Amino acid sequence: MEATRTNVANGRVDEEPKKMERKRKSVFWTYVLWAFGGLFGAHHVYLERDKQAFVYFSTLGGYVGFGWLRDIYMIPWYVADANEDPRFLEDFKQKVRTNRKPPFSTVRFAAETGVAYLWAGIYRSAIPEDEVYGINFRHLLLLTPFVIAFGVWVVGNIGRERGSIWFALGAAYLFYPTLSYIGDDTMWLFLMTVASAWSFDTFSKEWRLKPRKKKGLVRRLFYLTLAAAFYISLLVSYFYFNAVVTDSEGEEIKLSEAIRHFLTSPIWLDLKASLEATWNQAVHQGFWATWAQLIDLTDPRGEINAYKVLGLSQTATQKEVTARWRALSRDNHPDKIKGSEQERREAQEKFMEIQQAYDILSKAKNRRQRRNRKSDDDENVVDSGDR
Fold it and tell me: Residue 246 gets which letter from DSSP?
């Protein structure tokens, strides 16, 4: 049976012979990719919805997972679209007959506005506020309307809808001079984004009646990687040139300077020395021996903290432990506290902490005694065998 390609044009379904059978997309594998890489758009790459994949990558799953969760019930529809399923095409044909242009969608309009606003905000934040090597990059802010229009256009061209960028771009640039009247950058940016999205939906949006031209996987991944690299470079530029941290005195310090100073701080140098010592120990003594010592340092049985509670060193004998426990229990007994309810409650907590510390060290003593007895018994068995 000859394979066919289905095109929708003017409400009619036409079929053209295919040169080769296209591999059908699987609902199962789409859900697998959704589960393990969906926040970064992996399932949309698989379904060849590259624009939507990049939107998910740049917004962490469609604004921190909202679109990702929505895809739980949208995936079968996406797969049917990718496979040009006859029932999907029949439904799409009915929509084209009923509506001359795609009807208004609250979800799509919100996505256009949200993505464009985010991209524009990141772009503006990435432009260095100070000169870099004597070059002032602030004039690049004039491209803000283009970034907004591009964000609107990308979302508006996802799936079976399309439109040109020009109306969205024109509306954004017409709104750009109103900054001096609005004053607030955040509100101005938001209103400019809404104007651009409204213009696109009103004047540009139309049905995508012809299938997209298929591109090879390598080519698609190249463009996606290029777009991701550019987006990440904007984030890096923001963190390096403009991001700040606030110290205890309320003074703002550039993040890049704070990181540079952190790398010479005592806390980092001590940590670095500890990591280097651990690495050298692992090289000479082996990974598992080093791992066992690291586990011991985490105090899994609470013995180190128990010695600290009793005010003793880890070399203290059991006799010293018992003597110290009795003295602390006597001095911190709740019945001796005649103060407020808060003071009695704190004394009770301190008393219980002392008892728990003594129990931990007593159990440790018993455990060591059992281990020593077992070791002695094993040695006696070996000696008897030798005789």
Answer: E
What is the number of other CB atoms lying within 10 angstroms of the CB of residue 44? 28
Mapped onto helix, strand or coil, the DSSP state of residue 5 is strand
Which pLDDT belongs to residue 337?
Answer: 72
Residues of 47-63 as b/e, b for ≥16 C-beta within 10 angstroms? bbbbbbbbbbbbbebbb
Spatial distance between the Cα atoms of 330 and 363, rounded to a whole number of angstroms: 22
Per-residue pLDDT, 333: 82
Q: Is 190 helix (H, G, I), strand (E, B) or coil?
A: helix
- The pTM of the full predicted model, rounded to 2 decimals, is 0.71
What distance lies between CA 291 and its chain's CA centroid? 29
Instruction: Give the separation between CA 113 and CA 111, rounded to whole angstroms.
Output: 5
Q: Residue 290's CB: how many other CB atoms inside 10 A?
A: 17
- Spatial separation of the C-alpha atoms in residues 88 and 13, rounded to whole Å: 12
Q: What is the pLDDT of residue 347?
A: 83
Q: How many CB atoms lie within 10 A of CB 130?
A: 10
Question: Which H or E run includes 281?
Answer: helix 266-285
Instruction: Give the pairing of strands 4-9 and 161-162.
Output: unpaired
Least trusted range by pLDDT, from 126-130, 238-242, 268-272, 294-298: 294-298
What residues contact residue 275 under an 8 Å CB cut-off, 6+ apart? Answer: none
The pLDDT > 90 percentage for the chain reads: 53
Pair 60, 235: CB distance under 8 Å: no
5 φ/ψ angles, rounded to the nearest 5 degrees: -110, 135
**Using an 8 Å Cβ cutoff, are 237 and 126 in contact?**
yes
What residues contact residue 374 under an 8 Å CB cut-off, 6+ apart? none
DSSP conformation letters of 39-76: GGTHHHHHTT-HHHHHHHHHHIIIIITHHHHHHHHHHH
Kindly give, in sequence order, each residue whose CB lies less than 8 Å from that of residue 191, ignoring residues fewer than 6 positions away. 175, 178, 182
Half-sphere exposure of 38 (CA within 13 A, CB side): 21
- Secondary structure in 3-state letters for 261-272: HHCCCHHHHHHH
Which bin fits 44, alpha (ψ -120 to 50), beta or left (φ > 0)?
A: alpha
The string of pLDDT tens digits covering residues 81-135 is: 999 999 999 999 999 999 999 999 999 999 999 999 999 999 999 999 999 989 9
Rounded Cα–Cα distance for residues 111 and 55 (Å): 9
